[in-house]
Amino acid sequence: MSVRSLFLNQFRKQSLFRQIRLASCWSCGKDVQASSALFCGSCNALQQPAKGDNYFKIMGVMESYDLDETELAKKYKELQKYLHPDKFANRQQKEQEISEKYSSLVNEAYKTLLEPLTRGIYMLRLRGKDIPEKTEVDQEFLMKIMEKNEEVENAETEKEIMDLNEENKAQIKSLQKQVSKAFFDGDMQKVIKLLGVLKYYTSIDAQIQASIRSKGIIR
Ligand SMILES: [Zn+2]
């Protein structure tokens, strides 16, 4: 057998091996029933997340801007319970590594999908788009935002800050509805524009939450 045919044979074997591996357990080699299964049905080894799975698939929630945050939090707790690195302390080294990587991937996915702004940006990226570094907003809008910033800075009483909180949350909710509709309509230009606006209200929200914490307000 020539070197070349030896090489080709080897190559064929390897690519065949790779194809089989996609649906089989890395530990025992048996077929894993569903690509979304966390553990092998035969040897119970923790599986790698399926290649190409986006954050929605990883979290096991429907891919939609209107995701149910309670459902997302429930899935998150469930996954982290199964993936906790402590559970793999006495298992094979490779399984420990998978659990660590998988667990941090789940953290990242959860954090990204939970916030309306980062969720929107992530969904845009799944569609090959992004929001520009500098968003174009009109002067009047910027003035309004600056005024809000000042109001938050100057809020002293609990009532003042909580009123601002309520008002800003309502603003974010309303923008969320508009973003959702723009995604539904497939109008990515509009999504980009709305997320640019949402960015400002999200930073006001961060400012308000910091103020609430520093004032020791318990809700
Ligand atoms: Zn197995």
From TrEMBL:
Q: Which CDD domains match?
A: DnaJ
* A molecular function GO annotation: protein-folding chaperone binding
GO aspect biological process, one term: [2Fe-2S] cluster assembly
Q: Which domain of life is it from?
A: Eukaryota
Q: Which UniProt keywords apply?
A: Chaperone, Coiled coil
Q: Name one Pfam family in it.
A: DnaJ
The stretch of residues making up the signal peptide is: none
Which parts form a coiled-coil structure per UniProt?
145-178
Q: Which positions fall inside the J domain?
A: 54-126
Please give an example of a GO cellular component term from this record. Answer: mitochondrion
The similarity comment for this entry is: Belongs to the HscB family.
Q: What is this protein called?
A: J domain-containing protein
- Please name the source species: Mythimna separata (Oriental armyworm)
